[in-house]
Amino acid sequence: MCEMKFNVFENIIEEIIMVYKHDNRPWLIGYSGGKDSTLLVYLTFQAIARIPKNERTKKVYIITSDTMVENPIVKKYMHESSEKIMEASLEQKLNIESHIIYPEVHQTFWSRVIGLGYPTPEPPGFRWCTERLKINPMNKFVDDCIKTNGEIIILLGVRKAESNARYRSISEKEIAGYLLNPHNNIDNAYVYNPLTEIKNDLVWEYLLKDDGISPWGTSMKLLFSLYQGENLSEEQSVLGEIDEKKIPITGNSRFGCWCCTLVKEDKSLQSFINRGSKELIPLREFRNWLVSIRQDSKFRDTKRRNGTVYTKANGDTGFGPFKLEARQEILRRLLMLQLETKQELITIDELKAIDEMWDNDGDLNRRHLVDIYFEVTGKRLPWDSYKIPMYRDDIVKEIKNIALKYEIEPELMEKLIVSVDKNKHYTRSNAIKKEVSKIINQEWLHQDILHGEM
How many angstroms separate the most distant Cα atoms in the chain? Predict the structure, then answer.
């Protein structure tokens, strides 16, 4: 009975072998560590293992995206799985490579929030994070593969049974009679969806067979345990007694970033805590604090980064980025959280990038970041000794006093000083003129005039 039930997987494995042998275009699989992408890698492993070693000529890339703000438990699982996949491939000579990809250092969550003051993502439409943290790094890897190989085939672990919306999306993209479909947005890329017809109730059953050990040696029972307690599925189907606790297997589930502010309550993080991962409680509290300060006028500027000002529907002045003082407080608390949890929550490279961003934002002190780091950790950053204030504190204070005396915004003076300093070595004076003109003509400086004209 079990063998008949799994015939659909045997058919898929045979199809994967056929498509593999059809040409030499490399394959790329996005591996999130979730059940569907795991199933796809699982079947691909089994298929290639059946191909004679001298015919395993196609390069297969297994790509895992680390946003650098992953749930620590899930992150550990993803990295260990990626390592095991690579080890198993080398041992079995499968010609499979596993890679972890990351966002560029200036595009990470903390570089944007703490460095530039980006407001944290907010529903329904303010979602700047996904593109920078996941889509762009993956697109870069894909582009590099295409440049090297001419064309690639992207394998997706999407299934029609996942949801009605997913069913419509897949069906609309299918071309009758073809296994490979041209990618809608990427030239020279084709899409292969081998799992589209797999029903939800079969996914976990297949992954948990053979005592739940994957072809690369990791425990599918561990993956199953990561899904427990999730309440993000459209349905639940009890498939039987998987372990001694007789826990029902849930359907769809998603693991998000631990600091995600797009949801009112992070159910994924909370479910881990409910199941005993108490070390995540400080992360949840920090995340909730981030949400609480998003609409707090004490933390937010009243102009956008480009100097424009806008009015909300209710007539109030809209918020801009987090103020520099707010960003300093976020960093301080994040570093304290890092010490408390003993998890790397922000990297040294990110701190370096943020430090440069603060310098360019008009921070004449130029030592705020390195001093905060030392204050919290008791350690000096590698570049600490090179961070010299542009002016002494008493001079900075006097600059602000003079600005106020002549009714000039102190922030304007700070930005002008930084701009002139950045461009002082240019031989052509046009660079400084353009920068100064850009700064003094920003909208926020002329609100009285604009308001008067209206």
Answer: 87
